[in-house]
């Protein structure tokens, strides 16, 4: 699946999760998926725990995360 096709799986709707980017209009924000997969949860376990999601949804979340992290400069966060 191409990056364009993956990113098409990411939707925003003000009435769903306060307009946060979600997977296919479902109530799974991209940030939730990325946070879950950044810990000890494997993709296989994540998909087993959330059977209404597909492997391409996980790839879409990762592609979206990569896309939004493309910045020219990153300012340090205040402590």
Notes on the protein architecture:
The chain is mainly α and 79 residues long. The chain has a single domain (3-68), classed as Arc Repressor Mutant, subunit A (Orthogonal Bundle), CATH 1.10.10. Helices cover 44% and strands 5% of the residues. It has four helices and two strands, in the order αββααα. It has helices spanning 3-7, 30-38, 43-49, 55-68; strands at residues 10-11, 22-23. Strands 1-2 form a two-stranded antiparallel ribbon. Helix 2 (30-38) crosses helix 4 (55-68). The longest helix is centred in the C-terminal third of the chain and has 14 residues, at 55-68. The termini are far apart.
Task: Offer a concise description of the structure.
This protein has 79 residues and is mostly helical. The protein contains four helices and two strands, in the order H-E-E-H-H-H. It has helices at residues 3-7, 30-38, 43-49, 55-68, and strands spanning 10-11, 22-23.
Spell out the blueprint of helices and strands.
Layout: H1 3-7, E1 10-11, E2 22-23, H2 30-38, H3 43-49, H4 55-68
Antiparallel strand pairs: 1-2
Tag the structure with descriptive keywords:
79 residues, mainly alpha, Arc Repressor Mutant, subunit A, two-stranded antiparallel sheet, 4 helices, 2 strands
- Whole-number mean pLDDT: 93
DSSP, total strands:
2
Helical/strand content category: mainly alpha
- Which strand order do you get reading across the main beta sheet? 1-2
Instruction: Quickly name the level 1 CATH class.
Output: Mainly Alpha
Note the gap between the termini: 40 Å
Number of helices: 4
CATH fold node name: Arc Repressor Mutant, subunit A
């Amino acid at each position: 699946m191409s990056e364009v096709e993956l990113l098409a799986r990411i939707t925003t709707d003000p009435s769903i999760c306060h307009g946060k980017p979600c997977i296919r209009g479902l109530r799974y924000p991209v940030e939730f998926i990325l946070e879950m997969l950044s810990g000890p949860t494997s993709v296989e376990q994540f998909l087993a725990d959330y059977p209404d999601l597909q492997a391409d949804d996980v790839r879409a979340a990762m592609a979206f995360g990569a896309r939004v992290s493309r910045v020219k400069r990153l300012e340090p966060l205040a402590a």
